[in-house]
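Re-run with default settings, no changes from the original entry. Doing this only to confirm the output is reproducible before filing.
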Amino acid sequence: MTDRSPLVSVVIPAFNSEQFLSAALESVFVQDYRPMDVIVVDDGSVDRTGEIARSYSQVRYFLQANQGHAAAKNAGIAAARGEFIAFLDADDLWLPNKLSMQIGYLLQHPQVGYVIARMHVIVETGAEWPGHLNREHYLQDPICYLPSALLMRKDIIHKVGLFDIRYRYSDDGDWFLRANDVGVPMAVIPQVLVQKRIHSLNQSHERPTTAETFAAVRASVRRKRHPE
């Protein structure tokens, strides 16, 4: 990219992420894209998450009382200075060409509001595969409908809205459904650009997310049946 490349704000929500945050940040700083505006929103951690984030001079660090990942992402959006916003969960990793490939696509396709990509799953040493996840599906490097793969134009927030803080586990799925419901064009970069880490501390593995996912789908059906 050139000196005229648009600024990308990278929002990293983190909660008790001392075990993973450094690696996540390093995967951001080795990106072959500049300029970046890197934001860590600490969602009330009680470990060394804040200390680690503040040790990076390139990071803008924000601390909030624990409110959940949706609220942390929303705080990052509010603080974002970039024309584009990318998200990275503190326990995931980006491949070095993640931002350049996605920004390149959006610049070439101005009608597209956001892009995602494929992911490769890494099972951490000592971790067991979560019983409610289809292992065969995830071993095929599937399309990643998760924030760590999402890069969007900031201005689509006015159409889609922020992440819904009523969802503790499925706020991302709800956001993608709402983006689809309001007709925001999207695209999938066919390459693997995200590494998803499976470990014993995954928040989304604390319990199956089926109930919240069904609630988000039902809300989407209602919107389609009764558009405003």
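Strands lie at 8-14, 36-43, 59-64, 84-87, 93-94, 114-123, 143-144, 151-153, 186-198. The longest helix spans residues 210-225.
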